[in-house]
Design brief:
The structure holds two protein chains of two kinds. Chain A is mainly alpha-helical. Helix content of chain A is 38%, strand content 0%. In chain A, 5% of the residues are buried.
Chain lengths: 120, 254
């Protein structure tokens, strides 16, 4: 019986498939497109963010006394005696601020004293 | 400054301008003197000695003029100070004028210098007197600042007294607890003034001993006094801030 078949498995012919096509799992162009996408998404996100507000350091007022809320001023607060006291306090505060303790114009000049010749 | 009377504004300002001009001249003459001295010390020739003598005479004179112009400026500041008592004005004016006279004499001697050894003698006269001159200037500066602070302290005391009178005269207008609080605050304001006064007393004591010290000690002491004056000013400033709080609270019943 010549119907016997070849018992060895047939080896597929791989000559048609190029080696490059097999190893090429990832196209470099995809990476380029991906980077552009990341850039676009990131840029859009940044633009949509609200600009950060500047941190404003509160300047302390000279007299940190809060104005009493809801309190009614006494009629004597408008008397001439009280207004005079109030004005005097304001004047004292401004005079104190204007006073210079270290007045540089009054500092004595430094002069060279020994002449630097012999017999001195 | 523009609201000051013209005569007051002009006298110390013109004295200060003159002082600055003398300082400019001094710097130039000092430079010439240093060059001439270096040449003389190096070559010891007759020509270099002649040049050194001329430069030294100019230098000794200008040094006296500079110090004199400075003291004239200080004297003007004493005259103009509205806070200083007449007795203190007289005391410090006399002190400064004595120094001005000394310098006038020293400058006159400079004109009679005929050789370098004479120059040494004239210069030595100023050197030996310099601690007194310097301490007189420093004592006067401190006295001027104490007077300025004293005027503000008087105003501080006046406000405190008026505030006290005001509260006592209007006792019935305040709630009892408010009255207690206002009186406690006034006590604290008075305490702040007491600390200020103690500091001023310390300053006055140290200022009085300035003349007994050496030049280095005088300078160090003056630096300490200036720091103490700044402290004293700060106490008054804190007290003034308390006074502001007090007057704010005085407007309300509760």
């Amino acid at each position: 019986m010549d119907t016997m078949t070849d018992p060895s498995p047939s080896i597929p012919d791989l000559t048609d498939e190029t080696p490059q096509k097999i190893r090429k799992g990832f196209d470099i162009r995809y990476l380029f497109v991906l980077m552009i996408l990341i850039g676009v998404v990131g840029g859009t996100y940044t633009l949509l963010q609200k600009p950060k507000e500047e941190v404003v350091v509160p300047t302390p007022t000279q007299i940190p006394t809060p104005t009493p809320v809801g309190k009614v001023k006494l009629p004597l607060a408008t008397s001439s005696a009280f207004l005079e006291i109030n004005a005097s306090v304001a004047s004292l505060s401004s005079s104190l601020s204007a006073l210079q303790i270290n007045d540089t114009t009054l500092v004595p000049p430094q002069v060279e004293l020994p002449l630097g010749f012999a017999n001195e | 400054m523009f609201f000051l009377p013209a005569t007051v504004w002009a006298s110390s300002t013109s004295a200060y301008q003159e002082y600055l001009q003398e300082f400019d001249k001094y710097r130039t003459i000092l430079n010439d003197f240093k060059v001439a001295r270096a040449e003389y010390l190096k070559f010891k020739t007759l020509a270099s000695e002649e040049k050194a003598l001329t430069a030294t005479k100019a230098f000794v004179s200008q040094r006296s003029y500079l110090l004199r112009s400075y003291l004239v400026f200080v004297a003007e500041r004493i005259k103009e100070n509205p806070s200083m008592s007449p007795s203190d004005k007289s005391l410090y004016s006399t002190m400064i004028n004595n120094e001005i006279q000394f310098l006038a004499g020293n400058a006159a001697l400079a004109g009679s210098i005929a050789k370098l050894s004479d120059a040494n003698g004239v210069s030595e006269q100023l050197t030996s007197h310099y601690t007194i001159l310097q301490s007189s200037a420093y004592q006067t500066i401190v006295a001027l600042k104490i007077a300025d602070l004293g005027k503000l302290d008087a105003s501080y005391y006046e406000i405190l007294t008026k505030s006290n009178d005001f509260i006592q005269n209007n006792k019935s207008a305040y709630a009892p607890e408010t009255l207690v609080r206002l009186e406690r605050w006034m006590l604290q304001i008075q305490n702040k003034r007491s600390i200020y006064q103690q500091k001023i007393e310390e300053i006055q004591k140290e200022n009085a001993t300035l003349k007994k010290a050496s030049l280095e000690e005088i300078t160090a002491s003056f630096t300490r006094i200036q720091k103490a004056l700044a402290d004293a000013k700060q106490y008054l400033g804190e007290g003034a801030s308390y006074l502001q709080e007090l007057t704010n609270a005085m407007q309300y019943k509760e």
